[in-house]
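Sanity check

After download, print the first record. It should look like this:
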Amino acid sequence: MALQVDHFIDGALASGSSGRDGPVHDPSIGSISARVAFASESEVDTAVRAAQRALPGWMETPPLQRARVLFRYKALLETHADELSRLITSEHGKVLSDARGELARGSEVVEFACGIAHLLKGEFSDSAGHGIDSWSLRQPVGVCAGITPFNFPAMVPLWMFPISIACGNAFVLKPSEKAPSAPLRLAELLLEAGAPPGILNVVQGDRVAVDALLTHREVAAVSFVGSTPVAEHVYRTASAHGKRVQALGGAKNHLVVMPDADTQQAAHALMGAAYGSAGERCMAISAAIAVGDAADRLVAELQTQLAALVVGPGTDPGVHMGPLVTREHCERVRNYIDIGVQEGARLIVDGRKLQVPARGFFLGASLFDHVTAGMRIYKEEIFGPVLIVVRVATFEQALELVSAHEYGNGAAIFTRDGATARRFSHFAQAGMIGVNIPIPVPMAYHSFGGWKRSLFGPLHVHGPDGVRFYTRLKTVTARWPDGAAAADFNLPTLR
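Expected structure tokens:
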């Protein structure tokens, strides 16, 4: 009998009462490993009400005491790192080393949030006017919600709720129904670290739960990471219901390889960035732009390295790439390979031919050459182990391709020339730039986010923007007069 993955509400596991649930697969063997409860609108309301009850006391808890809970939480994440990593691999499929890396990057945000007492400090102006002082402060927004994707079931939730909770908010998390167990365990560990019941709640489910959060009158802010169509729906719906929103969408991240780049280094970078986690990363490099005579050398080196790529279950030693998350997604990616062939791109390495003894959702790494900007495999996010190579003659053409794409999440350049790198960093129309770094995910004390249709909303996630998103700015102007003054009917000018 399959395990049941439940909700976590008001500090305790809560069995689903909606009568609806869904399958959770082990993608390495292709079988159902658990059933996950799907929350009804009523169950979402129960979670939000639990957050509301916990909120007043937590808001008034001094930031330093909130930080101490997060210090203990970070220690628990380290203690339980192997357990959490195995949960990630068992439901997503990525190799264990990648799962550990995901958890480490999420833990870094917890570490950043431990400095919340400093991060919440406002500004003070002495004598803004005669006998008048003015200062600003940041206060919690209330009950916040996070809707997170399957590809980073631990890292993306950890980008959201630790900062929100450190700022004094309560939080309701709706993780992906494809990988629900790690987020549930994260909530249990926060309770163990000393957070009050109700401060972090987890509701499992599908679109019913999502829309209930987007429209709930007591949810003040919504953070989302996922595909662009859903990000746009989240942004429009939540904004229309008076909420502040940060909705991170899809990507088609480019890596420009200049003729002066180290070909082997660039190919190594592309291998990890394109095929790590089976390409199921919003920061995966899925388009290599080869400039001039870099193309032939790059494609030849990629072919050599792809021949040594090991694909198999994520828990097996020596494996570089695991399965895709579901059979349906595997077929979707396979269909894109078919489309690329039909469009006339040259399929150098065909991942459809991979044979893996395991019965899971496996697809080998694919490499296309001579791709053009009009092809669907260039324009659309594939979200799988498919790398395309576009050949251009000049750096200006490469820069134009990067900047013209509808997505603007991340972009990278490999070169030995500082002037070229600086020009790319300055002019490329993307929110995150890498120079000789293929996946430019900022550290926790900077903020993560793209441009154009990769982000809806003005603020990025985690880092300083995370603190801004989960707080409201209040400015106080104060005077202590010595005695009664006559009425003044003019607009105050602080003279």
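If your output differs, re-run the checksum step. Summary of this record's structure: Residues 3-249+454-476 form a domain with the Aldehyde Dehydrogenase; Chain A, domain 1 fold (CATH 3.40.605.10).
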